[in-house]
Amino acid sequence: MCLLALITIAAGYYAMHRFNMDNNTSKLIRQNTEWRAVHDEFIQTFPQYDQNTSVVLTGPRPNSLITVTEALAREISDRDDVYSSVFAPGANQFTQDNALLFVDTETLNDTISKLADAQPFLTAIAEHNSLRGILDLLIDALESDEELPTGVNQIA
User: Fold this and answer.
1) pTM: predicted TM-score of the whole model, two decimal places
2) Rounded Cα distance, 89 and 91, in Å
């Protein structure tokens, strides 16, 4: 039993002095490579991209995700003792206004097709823009024998 305790203490001492953690990821990968030279040149040209932290947020509802992104960006930007700048592309007005520019072609074509199918219904909603008018349109659409546009069919 004493021998086992002695071996455990010796192993613990060895582990404490020989194994250590380092969060510097550049020490994990060989640095004398072509990609590293390109990276260093990039950082010299664009120093604002050095020492960055990225936060990726995902969620099922885009509107609530934008709200959370804006709140997080405000919280982080208040910590100017830690962060020199904050950029939240998802909450950026340009990104919101031009979001379809960032969608792959197949998804874009699918979205355009769905919007074209729903166009008559969307026009009717635009003409009857009160809650009562929209609910009347929905009731009429659900009671009719016509094939419903994609958006209404999903509601029914």
Assistant:
1) 0.46
2) 5
Tokens of 6: 């002695």
* Cα radius of gyration (the chain): 28
Tokens coding 123: 């026009």
Contacts of 115 by beta carbon, 8 Å cutoff, 6+ apart? 122
Separation CA 70–CA 55 (nearest Å): 12
Cα 58 to Cα 48: distance, rounded to the nearest angstrom: 25
What local confidence, expressed as pLDDT, does residue 91 receive? Answer: 78
Tens of pLDDT, residues 42-73 = 999 998 888 888 888 888 888 888 889 989 99
Q: How far apart are CA 141 and CA 135, in angstroms?
A: 10
Domain boundaries, the chain: 54-102, 103-155
Return the structure tokens found at 153.
Answer: 């069919």
| CA angle 38–40–42, rounded 5-degree value | 70
Which one has a higher pLDDT value, 110 or 150?
Answer: 110
Report the C-alpha gap between 12 and 5 in whole angstroms: 10
